[in-house]
Amino acid sequence: MGSTTEAQPAMAGHSEEGVRRRDFIHVATASFAGVGTVAALWPFVSQMNPSADVLALASIEVDLSPIEDGQGVKALWQAKPVFVRRLTAKEQQEADAVPLSDLRDPETLEQRTKPGHKEWLINVGICTHLGCIPLGITEGEPRGDYGGYFCPCHGSHYDTAARIRKGPAPTNLVVPPYEFKTPTMIEIG
Amino acid sequence: MSFPWARQYEPKHPLMRYLDERLPLPRFVYNAVGPGYPVPRNINYWYNFGVLAGLALVIQLLTGIVAAMHYSAGAAVSFNSVEHLMRDVNWGWLIRYMHANGASFFFIVVYLHIFRGLYYGSYKQPREMVWMLGVVIFLLMMATAFMGYVLPWGQMSFWGAQVITSLFSAIPVVGESIRTWLVGGFAPSQATITRFFSLHYLLPFAIVGVVILKIWALHIPGSTNPTGVEVQGPQDTLPFHPYFTAKDFFGVCVYLLIFAAFVFFMPNSLGHPDNYIPANQLATPAHIVPEWYFWPFYAILRSFTVDFLWIPAKLWGVVAMFASILLLFFLPWLDKSHVKSTSYRPAYRIWFWILVIDVLILGLCGGKPAEEPWVRISQFASAYYFAHFLMILPLVSFFEKPLPLPDSIASSVLEKTGQSVAPAATPAE
């Protein structure tokens, strides 16, 4: 381009100073191609997000009627175990008796249950330390020093409200989003 | 690896100098596809199809790697996993339609690229190796495309696998054993899908390897050009960048426009609806044909209907089909004319266009059912195909009187604009 332009300086639209037509064309082409490339690449990124069939299983229903006082069940929600436990009156009292100042992650049992359903404790059954499944939901499993859950991987102890009391875990077992559809039926997710 | 007047890479920034002394990748790119690669200045838009084939390969790799993230290989799961990709995966329909149509478009540009090479004598000395590597890529592409078509495990997938692997059963004595070995069973099954998936993922990278060899071989003599006269000096060439990057970019835009029209508005027009029926090994579809890009060769396969010289028709068909492609390896020595460009070969030009029509007729016949008149037409067309390469081409180059060639690329270009060669003696930057 160089020598051609120099040889024919009188060519229309080719002033030496200021913005040339060609500059505009270059910027317009590069912008258009850039936006187009990003738009074309987006599907290749987005395809790695959960697909429609995975999202369709994002919520589950759990029937509470067969669960007796002091019993717990495991449910599977979004590929994670969910602990559903019916607390006994004694367990509720034990949880209420703990002063909040003793807790690493201060929360009352009321805050961790739904109003009027204080006996139903629902938690994601994954230790907040490094992701193991704590013991204690199934009959006969060790329930740790505080009578709740016990993670055998690195020794985290949870109390009857599934709050962290001892061991390396930083926070209480997570309460998933859920609501009571009927007094004996919850929908998680 | 280039002409002596090629521009030299001179890194200005200290960082680029530092890099150049340790890992001269920018220098490599500069010399391969940058201002350091001189290209005949007169190449026309038919010379875009090499770059377009490269683009098609990249699109197939990208969409294929992504499709493989959602695909499951197995007789019980493949069909459903493809439907899962179409219905559930974010943008999965786009990825699959790009991959399926991308295969067809890859073949479209490669066929145009091959006929460009035939017309402008790109296979002739000193570019025989470039041509033969191209034929290797073409064979690898056909194997890859066939195995990819089997993966959705629809009716056409299954029966395509059945028919194509049965080609090998035509080999005397050991044929049936080879076929059983290829599919890993007595018919295409679980083992066939998993091995085809493995190879379908592997072969494209083999293609990439051969493409690199081909570009390497091409860059020694450089491209041919529409005159067929070799480059003699700096006045005959222009740097690849920006002149031909710009020209290729325009071609890429046109290509992507047409590609997008197919992907978005008629994504199934090049496919076959029967492949949306899950594979059923107890019922063959009424009209079983391969994908359109195999039709000319399929027509040659089917054109042998009687045993001849104690050799069964089945074996004749298979041998002829493979021979029709392998023949291309010998093209540099079958065409004895020293004139490269068909523009200066008045007699061969006619025969070239007859060959184009002949291949189109073969393609038409290959897509039709195996009944008259298509079988008879494909018999004549197949005979002509072989006659072109084995008889007409050697004879024409012997009898033909070529037109006078221009003195140089520069003079042929300047003749058109009415200028003389003299002012162009200064190297075009």
Kindly describe this structure.
The complex is a heterodimer of chains A (189) and B (429). With 189 residues, chain A is α+β, with helices and mostly antiparallel strands. Chain A folds into two domains: 45 residues; 135 residues, Rieske [2Fe-2S] iron-sulphur domain (Rieske Iron-sulfur Protein), CATH 2.102.10. Chain A is 24% helix and 23% strand. In chain A, the strands form three sheets. Chain A has a three-stranded antiparallel beta sheet with strand order 1-9-8, with no helix packed on it. A three-stranded antiparallel beta sheet of chain A has the order 2-3-4, with no helix packed on it. Chain A has a three-stranded antiparallel beta sheet with strand order 5-6-7, with no helix packed on it. The radius of gyration of chain A is 30 Å and the shape is elongated. Chain B has 429 residues and is mostly helical. Chain B has two domains: 242 residues, Up-down Bundle (Cytochrome Bc1 Complex, Chain C), CATH 1.20.810; 113 residues, Orthogonal Bundle (Helix Hairpins). Chain B contains 16 helices and two strands. Chain B has a two-stranded antiparallel sheet with strand order 1-2. The C terminus of chain B is likely disordered. At the A-B interface, helix 1, helix 2 and helix 3 of A face helix 5 of B.
Averaging pLDDT over every residue of chain A, what do you get? 87
Strand content of chain B: under 5%
Greatest interface and its participating residue counts: A-B, 15 and 17 residues
Tell me, briefly, the overall form of chain A.
Answer: elongated
Q: What's the structural domain tally of chain A?
A: 2
- DSSP, total strands of chain B: 2
> Oligomeric state of the chains?
heterodimer
The first-level CATH class of the largest domain in chain A is given as Mainly Beta
Order of helices and strands of chain B: HHEHHHHHHHEHHHHHHH
Shape of chain B: globular
Structural class of chain B: mainly alpha
